[in-house]
Write a structure and sequence with these properties.
two-stranded antiparallel sheet
Length: 265
């Protein structure tokens, strides 16, 4: 159904919006927590570990746009427990939600202040990066496009605001077939701008010369960035944000609600 709103640009998050990452980043976190518990903490990695309940709590929170820091945070929480087995050390999803009530930015300061400096952040992030991989190798090869059309075929100016870094963006372009996407129309973490800051949306709109964009996202940090931006619309994709005013089951349906009619067939 078309909303009574005329968009002048389409701005996309990547993970869970342009690319189906259900087999990559959650698995990176799961394997990094399991492997890191042994490597960094000398613990026993039994049957417990990162699960859908943890994913739900973290992605709805707004402070965990970086999946590598999710692994580090969970390992730090587990290390602070004093338990040996991962199943005992890792907080339940319910306990995790309680812990997140004390969250403040910047994330590293909160983690170290609350759980200590028990797990080396740089090494934990490197473990995640190795699992995610690089060109021709790693879990990123399991990612699949959620939008069939090329960015030039969408009928409106297109930009991207993502928590990925530059290397991960290059891998995403290859997966999408968007190798020709202009570098000036992507804001990623290596630019020093991260959601939920609205700064990425502000910069992209200025570069596009637009004022009424639709920002397509799937997590709380996406929605919070658009709310702070204060103009345009936020279109939630998937099931993580049932409270969103505009929510769509798929990216194709979300784009069809705002793209010109001739491109929405």
């Amino acid at each position: 159904m078309k909303e009574n709103f005329i968009a002048d640009a389409l701005i996309f998050d990547i993970d869970g919006v342009l690319l189906d990452v259900s087999c990559s980043f959650p698995e990176v976190i799961r394997l990094a927590v399991k492997g890191g518990w042994q490597k960094f903490c000398g613990g026993e990695s039994d049957g417990g570990g990162y699960c859908a309940g943890h994913e739900w709590a973290l992605k709805r929170h707004g402070g965990f746009n970086d999946d590598y820091d999710i692994a580090w945070t969970l390992l730090s929480m587990a290390a602070a427990s004093g338990e040996k087995k991962l199943s005992d050390a890792l907080p339940t999803p319910e306990r995790l939600e309680e812990e997140l009530k004390s969250f403040f930015r910047p994330l590293p300061q909160w983690v170290r202040g609350r759980y200590g400096d028990r797990v080396p952040r740089a090494e934990a992030r490197a473990l995640c990066a190795g699992l995610y991989g690089c060109k021709g190798y790693g879990l990123h090869l399991l990612e699949r496009p959620m939008l069939k059309r090329h960015w030039r075929e969408l009928g409106l100016p297109v930009a991207v605001y993502s928590g990925r870094n530059a290397l991960e963006w290059e891998l995403a372009k290859e997966s999408l077939g968007w190798e020709d996407f202009p570098d000036e129309l992507i804001i990623h973490s290596d630019h020093g701008i991260e959601k939920p800051s609205p700064k990425g949306l502000e910069i992209l709109c200025e570069r596009l010369g637009v004022s009424s964009p639709v920002f397509f996202g799937d997590t709380a940090s996406d929605m919070q960035a658009q709310q702070a931006f204060g103009v345009g619309r936020f279109a939630a994709v998937g099931g993580l944000l049932p409270e969103a005013r505009l929510r769509f089951d798929t990216t194709e349906l979300a784009v069809a609600a705002f793209a010109p009619a001739s491109d929405s067939k």
